[in-house]
Each structure stands twice: as C-alpha cells, then as structure tokens.
Known about the structure:
By secondary structure, this protein is of the alpha+beta class. 44% of the residues lie in helices and 26% in strands. 4% of the residues are buried.
Amino acid sequence: xxxxxxxxxxxxxxxxxxxxxxxxxxxxxxxxxxxxxxxxxxxxxxxxxxxxxxxxxxxxxxxxxxxxxxxxxxxxxx
Length: 78
C-alpha cells in the first residue's frame, strides 16, 4: 500500500494519503487500540489491478509480446 501511494509513514504512525481516501480508506478509532486505517471492499480490486500489471511487466510472455520475439528465446539461458 505504501508502494501504491495509498498510505505513508509519518513519525511512528501510518497516515492515509489523498489517494488512499479516494480509494475507500478511512481513519477509525478503537477505544483500546487507538486509530487505524480501514478499507472499503473495493481496495481488493485496486490492489489486484496493480499486482496484475506488475506481473505482466516481468513475465516472459509480456516481454515477448513487447519485443516481438519468442517467449522461449527470452527464457533461454546459456
């Protein structure tokens, strides 16, 4: 979530960013445990989209499509 810009660390606490707020994050308070960040269910979709795009960038199939060469050639080691 830090890498996605949804939260940041300030001093010893996690802080919700504006991007985090627009993606369903809210600050809640618990009587015993203090404040914490809660997320709407849609955060799963946001994190899944990020995960998929990162995986495509580093996979042999994604690279082969980008460069127009065989995925087997990318995986070939000598």
